[in-house]
């Protein structure tokens, strides 16, 4: 088989290579991944996963996790006033508590990202993105209770390569420019330098400020050096700087002057402070491999830091009545060492140890002048409710140690058993200061008043988690693999960082655990004409960490008793004719709380006057669609002796889902189907190409997050997903 690490025959994306002919012997392309810390064919990995190549990301101008989610079933991204949250199989960490660890972990070139903001910059110059569904606690480690996403950068090449990509928007103002240069620098030394600039208007017309929002202004540069020290010995160093700025939000209110279907909002800037989200991040990594006999010793060292500031007006009205200024500072150092055996023997193993330390600090500055609109004598007057200025300052230190191992017993050529285990110790200390600077608190339950304007909370916690997994793997032939897996995942406990109604007793919350049973099959059939996979799963979560809005109290942070997600996922890539490829992928999901006492009183259940007596067990988890899927077709053909043409169409479907736990029908995002298309003319040798691309061609207006704002003309907020976008891509390769 020919190996090609950057290529993925995805059922969820348009294919970027000519498929194999039906009437000829098939040469099956091999998709290489590192989901189990080894380089393996994705069809041999006993995990339900999707892989998207860097080429496909570039073709469809996928730059953010929100863009990516449209091409991967059972993956959802929720853009909130805090930070974007990632959900796999309906499970993710709520955005209302900034200090939550994530149910879906990020790994960038093998480095664990403790915070989503560490890598807010656009996707560019990548080999691939791997989306792993289900708990991955044994090998990947901390906070993978629901799954993990691994991003792999493009590496230096042995020969000189360079390229420039220019994407120009047609439907609105904007341009995206990226480029790279790669090749040998000296004997045994290669390097790669890549950079990207983005300046684009948004797709929502804010008539109150005369701006198109959310606009993007991003700058990113990445440098990688790779030194070969001899056979099985090499070292790679990477440095990355990103400056990601988003101007405004896509939140549209129901207030007069705003129109969701026309993508218009009428929102003012509070005291001259426009909504924005800015993150500057520095990431450094050194990975070294050393041959020890037939084994490989690998060291992965990472350091990451960022500063972020976000201005967010909660009411999104004119005049605005609220501004939160969220400032974050974070730094993390991590070190992993592992020993990997060669493959092919009766026993294969990986053993290792990991440590990381981090510091997270947030400053939540809130300025508000809240009121309610009351009808009086045929007119409406505004009655003030609360005006003030408050701070919440949170400081947390975290240290994690773990040891892990995996043993694979190749009992026969057809049957393998894999056992994995990780022990993790996590310790945290945190302080929270809530300060009323002026005026009155938003709600008395916050515990700060003009007479007692300062509340100080502190805490320490230490916990141990053991995450095992066992997999039975059967290969009846070289092109088919079936597996059964039991895996446990865990997510660390922590502290409340920015919720008002918190006391010393409720300052901390407990760890979360998950247990997953999964059975699946992956197969290549009919001489490579069909590449497919199917997996069924059930996952139980205990002490699920949630953020919970209770009317007249505020947002509380804690643990739901339990939840279960179950369903199945499938994908198929079909190559019926020379140059033609077809793809389909889908997922069914049933995600529900089993038991959740003290939760928000949902509209579908009888409500109790005492919130502590409410239990929403049996209700659907927010952000969980019952059905999601993608489909695609692409045809590539020669146009002349030196030209080739490609036309492709890609669609995505997602059934309705709730964006809030109260299950209010107004917060239910309806089912939608979106269609993208791409037409390309390219040099047959791949030296240049020009493409016209359309995304969301039918201009579906959908939202992926909403919340209710009770002040100044009570109304609901909807976060509009990107509307129809058409752009032209020009690509040069040298």
List the helices and strands and how they pair.
Layout: E1 2-3, E2 29-30, E3 32-33, E4 40-41, E5 49-53, H1 54-59, H2 65-69, E6 75-78, E7 85-88, E8 104-108, E9 111-113, E10 126-133, E11 147-153, E12 161-169, E13 174-186, E14 189-200, E15 204-206, E16 211-213, E17 215-230, E18 233-247, E19 251-253, E20 264-265, E21 276-292, E22 295-312, E23 322-340, E24 347-376, E25 379-410, E26 415-439, E27 454-477, E28 480-491, E29 494-495, E30 508-509, E31 512-525, E32 530-550, E33 554-577, E34 580-595, E35 627-638, E36 643-654, E37 657-658, E38 668-669, E39 672-683, E40 688-695, E41 703-709, E42 715-720, E43 725-733
Kindly provide the name of the CATH class. Mainly Beta
- Number of DSSP strand runs: 43
Can you tell me the CATH architecture?
Answer: Beta Barrel
Number of helices: 2
Q: Please, how many domains?
A: 1
Secondary-structure-derived class: mainly beta
The stretches of 5 or more residues where confidence is low (pLDDT under 50) are: 1-27
- Radius of gyration, in Å, reads 26 Å
State which percent range the strand residues make up.
over 45%
């Amino acid at each position: 088989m020919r190996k090609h690490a950057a290529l993925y025959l995805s059922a969820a994306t348009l294919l970027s290579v000519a498929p194999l002919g039906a009437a000829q012997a098939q040469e099956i392309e091999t998709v290489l991944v590192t989901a189990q810390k080894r380089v393996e064919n994705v069809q041999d990995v006993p995990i339900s996963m999707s892989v998207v190549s860097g080429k496909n990301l570039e073709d469809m101008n996928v730059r953010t996790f929100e863009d990516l989610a449209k091409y991967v079933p059972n993956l959802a991204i929720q853009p909130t006033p805090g930070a974007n949250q990632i959900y796999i199989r309906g499970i993710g960490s709520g955005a209302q508590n900034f200090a939550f660890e994530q149910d879906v972990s990020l790994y960038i070139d093998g480095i664990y990202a403790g915070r989503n903001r560490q890598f807010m910059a656009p996707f560019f110059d990548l080999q691939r993105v791997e989306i792993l569904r289900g708990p991955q606690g044994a090998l990947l480690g901390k906070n993978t209770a629901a799954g993990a996403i691994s991003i792999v950068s493009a590496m230096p090449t042995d020969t000189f390569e360079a390229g420039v990509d220019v994407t120009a928007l047609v439907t609105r103002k904007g341009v995206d420019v990226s480029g790279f240069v790669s090749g040998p620098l000296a004997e045994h030394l290669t390097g790669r330098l890549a950079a990207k600039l983005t300046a684009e208007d948004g797709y929502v017309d804010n008539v109150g400020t005369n701006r198109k929002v959310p606009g993007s202004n991003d700058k990113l540069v990445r440098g990688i050096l790779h030194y070969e020290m001899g056979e099985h010995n090499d070292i790679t160093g990477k440095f990355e700087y990103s400056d990601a700025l988003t101007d405004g939000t896509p939140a549209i209110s129901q207030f007069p002057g705003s129109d969701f279907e026309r993508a218009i909002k009428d929102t003012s800037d509070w005291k001259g402070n426009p909504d924005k989200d800015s993150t500057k991040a520095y990431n450094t990594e050194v990975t070294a491999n050393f041959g020890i006999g037939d084994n490989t010793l690998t060291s992965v060292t990472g350091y990451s830091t960022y500063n972020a500031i976000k201005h967010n007006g909660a009411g999104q009205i004119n005049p605005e009545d609220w501004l939160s200024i969220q400032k974050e500072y974070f730094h993390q150092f991590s070190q992993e060492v592992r020993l990997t055996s060669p493959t092919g023997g009766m026993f294969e193993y990986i053993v290792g140890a990991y440590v990381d330390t981090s510091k997270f600090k947030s400053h939540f500055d809130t300025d508000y002048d809240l009121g309610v609109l009351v009808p009086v004598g045929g007119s409406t007057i505004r009655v003030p409710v609360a005006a003030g200025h408050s701070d919440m300052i949170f400081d947390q230190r975290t240290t994690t140690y773990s040891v892990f191992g995996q043993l694979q017993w190749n009992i026969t050529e057809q049957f393998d058993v894999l056992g994995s285990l990780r022990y993790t110790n996590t310790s945290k200390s945190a302080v929270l200061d809530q300060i009323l600077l002026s005026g009155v608190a938003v709600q008395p339950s916050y515990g700060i008043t003009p007479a007692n304007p300062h509340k100080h909370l502190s805490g320490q916690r230490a916990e141990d988690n053991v995450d095992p997994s066992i997999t039975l793997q059967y290969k009846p032939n070289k092109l088919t693999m079936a597996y059964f897996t039991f895996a446990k995942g865990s997510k660390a406990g922590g502290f409340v960082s920015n919720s008002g109604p918190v006391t010393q007793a409720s300052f901390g919350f407990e760890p979360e655990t998950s247990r997953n049973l999964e059975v699946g099959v992956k197969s290549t059939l009919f001489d490579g004409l069909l590449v497919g996979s199917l997996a069924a799963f059930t996952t139980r979560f205990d002490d699920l960490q949630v953020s919970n809005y209770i009317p007249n109290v505020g947002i509380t942070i804690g643990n739901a008793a339990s939840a279960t997600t179950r369903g199945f996922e499938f994908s198929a890539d079909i190559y019926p004719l020379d140059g033609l490829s077809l793809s389909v992928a889908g997922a069914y999901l049933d995600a529900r709380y089993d038991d959740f006492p003290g939760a928000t009183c949902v509209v579908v259940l009888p409500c109790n006057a005492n919130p502590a007596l409410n239990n929403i067990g049996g209700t659907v988890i927010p952000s969980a669609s019952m059905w999601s899927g993608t489909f695609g077709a692409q045809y590539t053909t020669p146009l002349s002796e030196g030209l080739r043409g490609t036309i492709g169409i890609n669609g995505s479907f997602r059934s309705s889902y709730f964006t809030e736990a109260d299950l209010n029908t107004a917060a239910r995002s309806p089912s939608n189907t979106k269609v993208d298309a791409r037409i390309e003319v390219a040099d047959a040798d791949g030296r240049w190409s020009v493409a016209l691309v359309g995304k969301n061609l039918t201009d579906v207006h959908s939202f992926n997050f909403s919340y209710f704002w009770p002040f100044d003309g009570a109304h609901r907020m909807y976060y509009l997903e990107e509307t129809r976008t058409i752009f032209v891509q020009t690509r040069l390769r040298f």
